[in-house]
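User: two proteins, same treatment. go.

Assistant:
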Amino acid sequence: MLFSLNYVKHLIENFNEVPIVFFEQSINGNQFGDALFPQWFLPVVNSSPVLKKKFRDVFDLVNVMNQQEKQAFYNRIVSDLDIEILCNDENSAPIYTLREYPNLHTALSSLFNHLYSETLQTSVSLNNALNTSLTDYHTVWKTNNPFIVCPFCGLENYSSSIGTNRDPYDHLLCKSKYPLSAINFRNLIPIGDKCNQTAVKGEIDVLHNDEFVRRTAFYPYGQNTTVQLRIICITPPSAGYRGEWDIEINCPDQNDSQKLSTWMEVFNIKERYLSWIKDFMDGWKDSFLKYLTKTGTVITPSADDIRIILTTWKNSLPTIEIFSGVILLDAYIDHLINDANESALLAFCNVQLNLDEVTTSSLP
C-alpha cells in the first residue's frame, strides 16, 4: 500500500444497518416479517419479492439453530464489522466460508450479492429511502480523497468521478469468501481497473494465504507507512537491450513486514514493477532530456554534476498520489544517483565522449 485513504462518513453507510438489525432480530424471534428490518428499509424490501425471498431463506436457516448457536453466529457477525481489526490482528477469526453451515453460506452469498449488485447499485427505492445514492457517495469520496493514482499499485489512474463513470469498488475482503462484508463501506475501496482484474487481486483472500494460514494486511483507511523501493541493475542496458533488473521493496516499520508481503503477493507488485521499469525507462530518459531543455540546463561530462542535476529533477516531480508511475521513477533516479557508474550516467543523459569533444544530443 503506497498511501492511506481518508474514510468518508456518509448517509449511504446506513445501508449496512440492514443486515445488523436483521440478524439481531432473527436470533431473538421465530417469525419472519417486517419486524426483522429497520423501519426505513421496509419500502425497499417489500417492493422486491426476490430480495425478500433471499432474506427469508437466510432466516429459515438461522431459525433452526439452537439459541446458543444463534448467539455465537451473531457475535461473529458483529466482530466482522471492524475491517481494520481483521487486517491488523492475525489472531482475530473472521467468518470465512461458514464451513460448519454450508447451506447458510450459500444463502448468505446469494443475499449479499443481491444487496451489493442489485439493491445498492440500482435500487431507486433504496436511494429514496436513504436520500442519497452510490454515485453521490463516490463524488463525496473523491472530494475527500483528491488522488489521481491507485494507492495499491501507483501505476494507474482513477477514472473521473463525474456521473456513473466511477472506478469499480473492490471488496478488500472478497464477497465470495466474506459475504457478510459485501456492503460494509469500510470494506469497499475504489481501485484501479488493472489491480481489480482476476489476474491480479480478483478473488484472492487477503486474510489467508494459499495454505489458509492467517495473515495481516494493509487497511486502506488506516495509518500505513510508505514503502521504500530500491532498483538494482543486474545487467546494464545497451543498444536494443533494456537490461536485467531487480527491485527491493521494504517497509520502514518492521512490524508491517507481513502486511508488506501480503500486499506484494495479492497485487503482484514485484512482477508489475519490473515490467514497468523496462517499458518506461526510455520514456524517463526522454522526460529528463525535455527537463534539461525546459530549464536550460547544460550537461557536462561530470558524474557529480549529473547527480546534482538528477536530484534537482527528482525534487521537481509530482507526488506519487497524483502522477502514475512516479513511485518507480523516483526509485530509478535514486538508482542513477547512488549506484550508477559514470558510463551509465552519461548514457542516460545522451552524452558521448568523442576524443576531446563533448556533445549533448538534442531532443528529436
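Protein 2:
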Amino acid sequence: MEKSSLGLPSGSVRAILALLLTGAVIYLCIIGKIPAERLLTIFGMVTAFYFGAKKSNNL
C-alpha cells in the first residue's frame, strides 16, 4: 500500500475533500443559502472531480 499526503493511503485526501465539500453544500442548501435546484449540479461536479482525479491517477 503506497503512502501519500499526510501518511494516508492514496486517494484518501481526495475522498475527504469530496465528502467535506458535499457536506458543506448540503448544509448551505438546508439553511437556504443555495437554492435546492443547484444541489444536483454541484454534487455532480464534486462526483466528477473525485472520479476524474481517480482515473487520471491510474493512467
